[in-house]
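Exercise: predict the fold of this chain.
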Amino acid sequence: MTRDRTTPPGERTSPSRDRTAPPRTPSGRGRRPWLGSLRTRLLVTFVLVTLIGSATATALAYREARTAILKRAQDSFQDSLHDRVAGIAPDVDLPPTERTLTELAERVSQSLDGAPVVISRYRELQGASDGLADLTRITPQLREAVRTRGSMSFQRVTRDDIPYLAVGTPVTFGDNGEASGLEIYAITSLRPEQDDTAALLSAVRDGVVPVVVLSALLALLSARAVLRPVRDLGRATRKLAEGDLSIRVAVKGRDELANLAQDFNETADELQSSVTHLRDQEERARRFVADVSHELRTPLAAMTMVATVLEEDADQLPPDTARAARTVSAETAKLSRLVDDLMEMSRFDSGAARLRLADTDLGEAIRATLALRGWTDEVRVELPDGVRGSVDRRRVDVIIANLVGNALRHGAPPVTVTLASDPGSGLGPGPGPGHSLAIVTVADHGPGLSPDALAHVFDRFYKADAARTRSEGSGLGTAISLENARLHGGTIEAANRPEGGAVFTLRLPLRRTEGTTG
């Protein structure tokens, strides 16, 4: 009697028990928007790698263990059946009766471990060790394989979620293996083997949880080790951007992050050196301007006095001499104004400018500025009474004089000056009493400002007409006005009106806020 251990076509296995494919893992989670931080991405990556590795190892281990357990059970059962049939079947008289077939099945069943269900068949006759057993577990495919192959065959089937092993073998006689027509089938349950593989799978699956937790802890530790230098660099970069040039980071190790920290420190050293050098140069330049302006005041005062005397007596001088005297007087006056402007700018740059606040009616102050310079008849005003605030009257006078003077010199009439107040739009801590905003607009009806002039109108020594190198202004008027407005906590904006002409808008808080004194 020979044996063929190849499972015939048509083998059925339980869909709920035989799962050899690895569990699916979410492949797209690393791209979700909420995974924004590097720490979270590292943690998710570690956990996903661990889950994929654990799932793959679990699936492979389950498949190999299941195959080994089933193969051992199949081989053991087939060997036992072969030995029992070989020892009992030769004693059966042929052709057998149905009773004889039943007795043969019972004898074979009793000699096997676990007393499986045994069926003996001879042509159309059949006998079973258990008449109540479900004989449909012997499938037509298995019977066909036994008949055609003439050797032992097996098949695994499932009934009611319970796996069974069905083995069939023909009984042969003689050395040449002559078929007798007698066939023996045995059915045994694979439930113990199924329980063993399920217990193995559960044990491996339960072991995944501590592995994932351990991987998460390792990911957190790794992220902390990697991100701590990154956080230190980020903190140092912010402090450097805020102006703390002495900030440095500790260099630890010899990896890429240590090299990055070293590069940051070298960059900070170079930046500190450059900024210190520039500050020294700027301080020397400011000191030079202040010293020169101061030293020029005394000779300028003498020159102004002499030029004034010469201009008063110019009518009594020859024409050429009179013209020279008037030119000297005018140029001396310009030089005197330039020195005064330079002195004022140097005070702003050095932080020495201070406000002398006093309760002031803005409308009255503006009218006084215009009257002092003889512009009352040249300027249209809309100056309501009652717009009062705590301001430095002298600096407000400088702002209005510069803005109106520019409009008269470079614009076209009529020049208008309007005053308004906005109680709820102050630049201070909030609206309410003492926090209102005065809005002064100075507009002309000239050609307006070019785009380039609008971008540089408040720059120092900027003149809209590059060819106008000899003008009455020093090029510092608008810059000084803006600095005075900022000293009050306000601002000045320049624009062109839709109907033509330039307009300068002064926004001035009527109560000084913290930090506005130079």
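Check your answer against the key: Residues 256-312 form the longest helix (57 residues).
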